Amino acid sequence: MTVIxxxxxxxxxxxxxxxxxxxAVRAALERWRADAGGGVGGxxxxxxxxxxxxxxxxxxxxxxxxxxxGAAVPFEDVVAYNCMDEQWWLxxxxxxRAGCSVLGSxxxxxxxxxxxxxxxxxxxxxxxxxxxxxxDGPEQLVLSAAGLVGLTGVNAAGVAVCVNTLGMLxxxxxxxxVAAVIRGALTRRTREEAIAFLxxxxxxxxxxxxxxxxxxxxxxxxxxxxxxxxxxxxxxxxVHTNHPLASTDIDPVALEELRxxxxxGDSEARLAFLASALRLEGSSAALERLLEDTTVPVCxxxxxxxxxxxxxxxxxxxxxxxxxxxxxxxxxxxxWTEPGWSGPAAS
Length: 347
Known about the structure:
By secondary structure, the chain is an alpha+beta fold. Helix content is 34%, strand content 24%. β9 (216-223) and β10 (226-229) form a beta hairpin. The protein is globular.
């Protein structure tokens, strides 16, 4: 496993990322350009996504600049690459992403949150874990791909964030890209603060955010039309895939596309399997085993014609000291590892 240690200001963390993972960033961008068919840089100039990041999260905008500087690659490519979800609906309507399964439970023993991150097969081999020590805010452990600021993560204060794309919800080019939203939530020190952040910012893409800390779970579905809780009062578990359970901000054209491509049916099958199999008092190992399922399948190994493959799996245990386990790849080719914190938890 490649752990990239980054500390300091946004610009310093970005440069550390770009310098340590330079070859991987360049390879990832080459694959991305080939997969996208060219012209992806226009996303930066056509839509105000970068302006929104700069206005709401200037340190993250600096981190993107630092990645480009450290890896010696074009800044606009780094920005566009970090608008991955936005490309799938805004720039490339015919390739809406459908992947990722999230599980969570909260008991008297603490809170568990886990997920499969499913991405295009071309991204396999670019997996990294970012260990971020920002100048302000808690340390973070973040699953990512070389050149991306993050896909899912947990911080040393004990707040974890997992995600599912909801491609049938309305997006908005004035909103904050998903990768930026994830990192913004991970700067918060409690679940309530993270959900307040999610509820306050505009969203560029339809996305479900599962947020957890030692005291409980949160589940919100976000779109350009607003933020809706997907967790009923008193619920102590989360099961979510790639269709909304609460939001009604539906784009009918996108919904029909996903249904025609069988991606809606796939999401519904994964949800039904996981909802029936998840036990509230289960262990981290039990959640991890569910995410290895190959019958539905929950774990996507890249069957012919299917656009997604399981890029990695995360498993967070949120007690007095938060723990994070990462598997960077498929179960048959990658082992679980726990990188640990560089300093005292909750620093």
